[in-house]
Amino acid sequence: MIARVWRGITLKEQADAYLEHLRQTALPSLAQQPGQRGAYVLRRVQGERCEFQIISLWDSLEAIGAWTGGDPNRSVYYPEDERFLLDMEPLVRHYEIADALPAAALSAAPGAA
Fold first, then answer.
1. Is 33 left (phi over 0), alpha (psi -120 to 50) or beta?
2. Which of 1, 18, 40, 50 is least buried, going by the fewest C-beta atoms within 10 A?
3. Phi, psi (degrees; rounded to nearest 5) at 22
């Protein structure tokens, strides 16, 4: 499995609006893609800016490439993204999932409440 990591930065006062924009654009698009296995949207405020990261999980680089139009390393943007984002990074990062700790394993661990 492959983790695809994309990053975008907005102004802090636009963070909630941008999150809603992601819920209307990127997340529904990801959910429809063959080979896509889920995604997390992370955000953190740093001063006057808010950094977003989307970590999406995929079966393969080929599945990602089918979504991006060929190059799996290319960022995917939607109409109105430039209204929110301070920079449009052209590339993303990919990581092979080397190991995992499923949430269900945490609740089954000895001493778990």
1. beta
2. 40
3. -60, -40
* CA 101 to chain CA mean position, Å: 19
Chain centroid offset of residue 53 CA: 5
Q: Where are the alpha helices (DSSP H) in 25-91?
A: 26-31, 61-68, 81-84
Contact call for residues 104 and 18 (beta carbons, < 8 A): no
Task: Output DSSP code: residue 92.
Answer: -
Query: CA angle 47-90-45, nearest 5°?
Result: 15
Euclidean distance between CA atoms 50 and 43, whole angstroms: 7
Q: Model confidence over 57-103: pLDDT tens digits?
A: 999 999 999 999 999 999 999 989 999 999 999 999 999 999 988 87
Beta partners for 43?
52
Identify the DSSP state of 99.
-
SS3 97: coil
